[in-house]
Amino acid sequence: MKYRTAFVSNSSSSSFTCKVCGNNVSGFDMCLRDAEMVECVNGHLFCTDHLIPPIKFKDYIEDENGKYVDKIMTTDNIDDVRDCYDGEYNILPESCPICQLKHIPNSVLLDFILKDCLTATKDELIQQFRNTYGNYTNFCESSKMN
What residues make up the domain containing 46? Predict the structure, then answer.
């Protein structure tokens, strides 16, 4: 085992956080498969437990002319996804709990509120927040977050 005592610039550690349950997995030389997570084509990262069956994903296959093309695949077995080229990164929206609005992350809810529910602009809300609380500590004390 190597012990490093100085700054290491070529570290190969990875960290993945599920956008559905918040599970965080990290390690060295880790990929989505190792973390038991997948990513949909719209960039939503989540644990394989949250996949909506049947699992739909894109695979890159060689056609009769020797060219690689996208092919839509459907399966009930996560191992089929893992066996194809970059399957963990090519889950289609039909199998994504976020794309299907089975789970809506707080950041998406905030975007919805800012866009569709408020008459104030984001900048106006920020200024109101600053005027009301002055700093983050006052906000935490007021909302009993500490």
Answer: 13-95
Q: What is the pTM of this model?
A: 0.74
List the one residue out of 89, 109, 110 whose CA is nearest residue 44. 89
Our count of domains for the chain comes to 2
135 and 82 in a common domain = no
Summarize pLDDT for 23-38 with one digit per residue, the tens: 999 988 888 989 999 9
How far is Cα of residue 68 from the mean position of the Cα atoms in its chain? 27
CA-closest candidate to residue 37, choices 29, 48, 22, 28: 48
The runs of H, that is alpha helices, within 7-88 are 32-35, 78-83
Q: Could you read off the pLDDT of 47-80 as tens digits, one per residue?
A: 999 999 999 999 888 888 888 888 899 999 999 8
